[in-house]
Amino acid sequence: MKILIITVISLLSVSAVAQTKLVLVNEGKSNYQIIISKNADSTDKRAAFILQDYIKKIAGVQLLLKTDAEAQNQTEIVIGKTNRCSKKEWGILLNDLKEDGYYLKSKGKKLFIAGGTGKGVIYGVVGFLEDYLGCRKYAPQTEFIPDLKIISIKSINDKQVPPAGIRIINGGFADDTDYKDWRKINTVADNWSDKDWKGYYVHTFNRLVPSNNYFEAHPEYFSLINNKRIPYGQLCLSNPEVFVIAVRKLKEEMLLHPQIKYWSVSQNDNYDYCQCDACKKIDAIDGGPTGSLLNFVNKVAAAFPDKIITTLAYQYSRKPPLQTWPASNVMITLCTIELNRSLPIESDPASRSFKNDIIGWSKICTNIMLWDYEVQFTNYLCPFPLFHTLQPNI
User: Fold this and answer.
1) How far is the C-alpha of 98 from the C-alpha of 161, rounded, in Å?
2) CA 290 to the chain's CA centroid
3) How far is CA 120 from the centre of its chain?
């Protein structure tokens, strides 16, 4: 009988915990406050301000924003790393969140919003507002905010880690910081402090070794096409001086922008890869011009082991090499520019070669970014229905 009573009490206790509710706002009043570290960085502060702003928009109540230097309260929304968690508890919250993952966890009457080393805590706040409070952000100037007298939520244990580290959508909407954060979009340039700086995103050979600066005195730095050096093709990647100049240029730029993680060392936007004997010899080993490209990029990556060096698998370099593997800090940007936009890749017979290429790259590289082109190149303004291909392609 005693065992039965204990069991029933245990079940009731578990049930009570499961039914615990956090009443954040009740008829225009709230006992809750938002807590950040006294040493909070700009990301944690921004996350806290977003939450404070939207709670006021939803329920007309502005929660107090305090630091963890103040006394604890039972009713707190804790954002980022604070003294409200032990090191062990914090380790559990942060486990495997990477850069942009987040963890929403309720404990008693408290709600913890933890994030990875990137924008995770901001994504945690907007994820909470969207998934639990019903907010929506449709466009930079268009959102839905529920009008609530009571904000009450059940216990939460929600961990989200994006499978893709980079999530870029090109276009005007993605230039709006608020919209980008709500849609959890990022770019390789998210940490750019200088808005006028273009960064090293794609097609960078002519920035690394500008033909205007070097071609007249050193035509041998550039592509040999039909036995003639041309200034606006690609670089001669077997030339050791080209490597020295490119690395020197990257070092200069990295000193000016030390916070940038991704640096593109990638072909210009044309098919004029070098056909000199030295480049052709490397390409023959790897079954195509990806060979000389990837050998060059790997050498550059070795000079910057703490950075990610990105390069394109694009047009003539889309096919994976036969023998050369990308270095561990090289990211391959695999492009679908030639593919049919109106049929899913999986079912389109004309896309078979791309399917083979993505399988081939995935066998030799675990750091791949896919660049898809959801446009109709023959007429950018023509209506082009493609919703039926987006999900199967992803």
Assistant:
1) 8
2) 26
3) 11
Q: Please name which of 58, 28, 42 lies closest in space to residue 128, comparing C-alpha atoms.
A: 58
List strand residue ranges (DSSP E) for the chain, in order: 21-26, 33-36, 64-67, 76-79, 102-107, 110-115, 136-139, 142-144, 150-154, 157-160, 224-225, 228-229, 262-264, 308-313, 330-335, 368-371
CA distance 57 to 148: 9
Question: Computed over its alpha carbons, how large is the radius of gyration of the chain?
Answer: 26
pLDDT category of residue 196 using cuts at 50, 70 and 90: low
DSSP 238: T
Tokens of 388: 């039926």
Chain centroid to Cα 380, Å, comes to 26
Strand 136-139 to 142-144 pairing: antiparallel
Residue 236 and residue 248 in contact, taking contact as beta carbons nearer than 8 Å = no
* Cα–Cα distance, 77 to 30 (Å, whole number): 12
Residue pair 369/166 in contact (Cβ under 8 Å)? The answer is yes
DSSP-assigned states of every residue in 22-48? EEEEETTB---EEEE-TT--HHHHHHH
Which residue has 């791949």 as its token pair? 368
Side-chain-facing half-sphere of 235: CA atoms under 13 Å: 29
d(C-alpha 122, C-alpha 177), whole Å: 12
Q: Which residues are 334's β-sheet partners?
A: 313, 370
User: Token digits for 191?
Assistant: 């940490």
* Cβ-Cβ contacts under 8 Å for 306 (sequence gap 6 or more): none
Report pTM. 0.82
Task: Report pLDDT digits (tens) over 146-176.
Answer: 999 999 999 999 999 998 888 888 777 877 8
